[in-house]
């Protein structure tokens, strides 16, 4: 038995769990806790987890029992686990598996051991619409077209469905990982990449095959996707955030797998190639000619006998793709992301339609092991000039954020920060094109935004990687899936209100390990005493949750005035 003083956990009645980082049993406790609780924040000394219905359903899906979890909390908790927490663990985990979706011949059958739960489904209008006739007291027929709909609806009312109806194999495709990359470097999966892949694959059984892998930017989510493809060996559809991301996936496939370039194709606004491995974008899939028109490119989902669909940056999954995913439950689905945070609160829909979270790891753990760069985060608060402040005060609520974001005093701060990091690869990131263009003109640096042609974007990114360009101005088009491994400084001049997603992705642009092991610096410049500062408090919460120290300076203090 662990001595009381050596127990790292404090379990509280609100289902939060505090973990002492300096405790000798910290690592053992943390690794087990991560199986059934969500990390809320992880600063230096005390990490906070929260036990939620979804986290307990994830645990149940992985094979843990309430008895396992309660025994663990009793062993590592400083105090007795509150009775209501023990009861919630038993009740919520007990809900997972009470409804099981099975394949019987050509039919799908929803089975329960509780006749009253079957009756509740039949009498709940928003659920009943997705089931067919009752087959005995404990079974309901589910039309195959509603396999996703019923799971989504039941999760929303608190009874997740365990789906063991299996998956189609898809058309076979020979696919394996190389032992050496195309330039001769040894290649093998890192231990956490292997663990993530194994968690998704689950030995090829119906217990695996659908779910989400959460890893920081720069930690190799794409490699996990390639490893899953190597295990499944089937035709695959990969959905990305933009064309640049598509091309980066292609580069990684050529570098680290044996797949021939003739076996993968790009389905985008520029090219329409359907191949055994096809890569497309969320924007392409949701394009339509008018608000009432059909999504004409959804046909790509039916063009081939896909055995796997990979959703890159799955936290961005737009509503129309949620809908089509609900109809694709017979195909294996892998979601990849740096954060499952959604500002719209639809994490439960990702759980029900893509699958449970299969693997997660704290960012700081990978930083400590050298797999991502050490980052220092700083907020610089800048006063607005009197004329700008007057305009801000007299403006409508919805205009205030932009006026604060475009505070022209930010330009001087940018200039000084660039000078302080002279010679270091630097990204200057923002939302508003006029502001970014002014900065680009002032610094005589190239600027990438939505209207920049793909060929020009790729050329500029290549020049930045090669060190020919030291400063690059980028709009929000660079928030996602842009591989710039040597970027070591990011200066954020404006953002999308309080988006934690965006903060995670922008920090991620500088987290890839540096060739010389140098630190990364992330600056966020905000207008003091404005709506922008209020939004920044929510944005910085993500960084604090991941354990990053977040320093705040007045601009004059930072610049030594």
Provide a compact summary of the structure.
With 561 residues, the chain is α/β, with parallel strands linked by helices.
Overall mean confidence score, pLDDT: 87
Strand content: 15-25%
In whole angstroms, the N-to-C terminal distance is 58 Å
- Domain unit count: 4
Give the structural class: alpha/beta
Name the overall outline. Answer: globular
What does the oligomeric state look like here? single chain
Taking the sheet with the most strands, its summary is: 7 strands, parallel
Number of strands: 22
Q: Could you say what the CATH topology of the largest domain is called?
A: Rossmann fold
Explained architecture:
This protein has 561 residues and is α/β, with parallel strands linked by helices. It has four domains: 4-95, no CATH class; 99-163, no CATH class; 191-361, P-loop containing nucleotide triphosphate hydrolases (Rossmann fold, 3-Layer(aba) Sandwich), CATH 3.40.50; 370-558, 3-Layer(aba) Sandwich (Rossmann fold), CATH 3.40.50. Helices cover 37% and strands 19% of the residues. The protein has 22 helices and 22 strands. The strands form four sheets. Strands 11-12-10-13-14-9-15 form a seven-stranded parallel sheet. A seven-stranded parallel sheet has the order 18-19-17-20-21-16-22, sandwiched between helices. Strands 1-2-4-3 form a four-stranded antiparallel sheet. The radius of gyration is 25 Å and the shape is globular. The N and C termini lie far apart (58 Å).
């Amino acid at each position: 038995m662990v001595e009381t003083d050596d127990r790292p956990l404090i379990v509280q009645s609100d289902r939060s769990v505090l973990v002492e980082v300096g405790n000798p049993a910290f690592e053992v406790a943390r690794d087990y806790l991560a199986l059934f609780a969500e990390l809320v924040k992880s600063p230096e000394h005390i990490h906070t987890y929260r036990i939620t219905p979804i986290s307990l359903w994830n645990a149940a899906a992985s094979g843990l029992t309430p008895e396992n979890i309660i025994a663990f909390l009793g062993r590592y908790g400083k105090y007795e686990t509150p009775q209501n927490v023990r009861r919630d663990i038993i009740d919520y985990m007990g809900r997972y598996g009470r409804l099981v979706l099975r394949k019987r011949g050509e039919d799908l059958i929803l089975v329960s051991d509780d006749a009253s739960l079957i009756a509740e489904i039949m009498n709940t209008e928003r659920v009943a619409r997705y089931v067919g006739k009752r087959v005995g007291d404990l079974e309901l027929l589910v039309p195959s077209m509603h396999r996703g709909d019923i799971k989504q609806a039941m999760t929303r009312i608190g009874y997740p469905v365990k789906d063991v109806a299996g998956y189609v194999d898809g058309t076979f495709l020979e696919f394996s990982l190389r032992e050496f990359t195309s330039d001769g470097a040894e290649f093998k999966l890192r231990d956490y990449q292997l663990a993530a892949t194994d968690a998704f694959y689950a030995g090829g059984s119906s217990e695996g095959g659908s779910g989400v892998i959460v890893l920081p930017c720069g930690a190799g989510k794409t490699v996990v996707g390639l490893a899953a493809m190597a295990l499944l060996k089937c035709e695959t559809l990969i959905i990305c955030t933009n064309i640049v991301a598509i091309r980066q996936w292609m580069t990684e496939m050529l570098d680290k797998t044996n797949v021939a370039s003739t076996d993968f194709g790009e389905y985008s606004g520029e090219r329409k190639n359907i191949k055994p491995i096809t890569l497309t974008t969320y924007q392409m899939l949701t394009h339509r000619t008018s608000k009432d028109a059909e999504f004409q490119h959804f046909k790509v989902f039916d063009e081939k006998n896909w055995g796997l669909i990979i959703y890159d940056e799955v936290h961005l999954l737009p509503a129309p793709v949620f809908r089509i995913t609900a109809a694709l439950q017979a195909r294996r689905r892998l979601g990849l992301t740096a954060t499952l945070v959604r500002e719209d609160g639809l994490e439960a829909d990702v759980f029900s339609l893509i699958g449970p979270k299969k693997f997660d790891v704290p960012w700081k753990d990978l930083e400590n092991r050298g797999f991502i760069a050490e980052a220092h985060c700083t907020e610089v608060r800048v006063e607005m000039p009197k004329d700008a402040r007057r305009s801000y005060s007299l403006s409508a609520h919805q205009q205030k954020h932009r006026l604060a974001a475009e505070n022209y005093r930010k330009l001087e701060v940018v200039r000084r920060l660039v000078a302080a990091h002279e010679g270091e690869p630097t990204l200057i990131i923002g939302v508003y094109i006029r502001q970014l263009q002014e900065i680009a003109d002032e610094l005589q640096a190239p600027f990438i935004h939505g209207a920049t042609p793909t060929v020009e974007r790729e050329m500029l990114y290549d020049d930045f990687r090669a060190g020919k360009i030291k400063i690059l101005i980028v709009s929000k088009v660079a928030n996602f899936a842009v591989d710039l491994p040597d970027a070591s400084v990011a200066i954020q001049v404006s953002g999308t209100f309080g988006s934690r997603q965006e903060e995670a992705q922008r920090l991620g642009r500088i987290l890839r390990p540096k060739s010389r092991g140098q630190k990364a610096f992330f600056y966020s410049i905000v207008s003091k005493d404005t709506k922008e500062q209020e939004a920044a408090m929510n944005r910085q919460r993500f960084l604090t949750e991941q354990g990053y120290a977040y320093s705040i300076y007045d601009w004059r203090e930072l610049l030594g005035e």
